[in-house]
Inverse folding.
């Protein structure tokens, strides 16, 4: 997969959200990547625009929820 877009983390503990395109299919994915942790696919889309929109619309909520779980 190739990284297309990267959205920076709000804090050092938060993952970076990365849009990647599969080279073998017209599938775009949003991945959560953190230093020294394996990347995790969190959303699959049919287009780059859909994946980017998900980050803007829901990605920050996903990060906030993950942060709440991590801190509890």
């Amino acid at each position: 997969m190739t990284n297309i877009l990267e959205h920076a983390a709000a804090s050092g503990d938060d993952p970076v959200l990365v849009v990647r395109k599969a080279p073998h299919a017209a599938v775009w994915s949003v991945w959560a990547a953190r230093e020294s942790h394996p990347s995790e696919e969190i959303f699959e889309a049919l287009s780059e625009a859909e994946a980017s929109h998900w980050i803007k619309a829901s990605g920050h909520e996903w990060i906030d929820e993950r942060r709440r779980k991590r801190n509890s």
Notes: The chain has one domain: 2-71.
